[in-house]
Amino acid sequence: MAGWLAWSLCLAAPAAEAARIGVHDAAESPRYGRKAVGMLGRGALNVATCFVDVLTNTINETRHGAPFMGTLEGLAKGTGCGVLRLGSGAVDLVTFWVPGYNGAPVSASYDNCLGFDK
Question: In 16-29, which positions are buried (b, 16+ CB within 10 angstroms) versus exposed (e)?
Fold first, then answer.
């Protein structure tokens, strides 16, 4: 029991810092504690929300594209982005502990998973 308490106290400060600056920025930090907690948060967020890419892109392309073809384009784009987001999240969750490695991030935006403009 004491081990779990010590472990949680060691993670409390980096976790609070990661929450303050955001998991995406924390995951890119050169500081190991901030990076590790940030990658765990970013990985969990990406795994839990990968389906949002499919919904967002299908709706956006249906609105702005040609009838039926826009829906198919959005579905394809969203599925691709969802798979990328899921893979990125899985990589972050498995490799958060590796020093100096900041994962393979995708954009925080669900409109364009490859656009890194914040």
Answer: ebbeeeebbebbeb
- Record the pTM: 0.78
User: Cβ distance 29 to 38 under 8 Å?
Assistant: yes
Helix (H, G, I), strand (E, B) or coil at 81: helix
Structural tokens at position 25: 């920025």
Q: DSSP state, 117?
A: -
DSSP string covering 17-69: HHHHH-HHHHHT-SSHHHHHHHHHHHHHHHHHHHHHHHHHHHHHHHHHS-TTH
Q: Is the dihedral of CA 86, 38, 106, 59 positive or negative?
A: positive
Q: For residue range 84-118, what is the model confidence (pLDDT) as tens digits?
A: 999 999 999 999 999 999 998 898 888 888 876 54
CA neighbor of 107 nearest in space, from 94, 92, 93, 117:
117
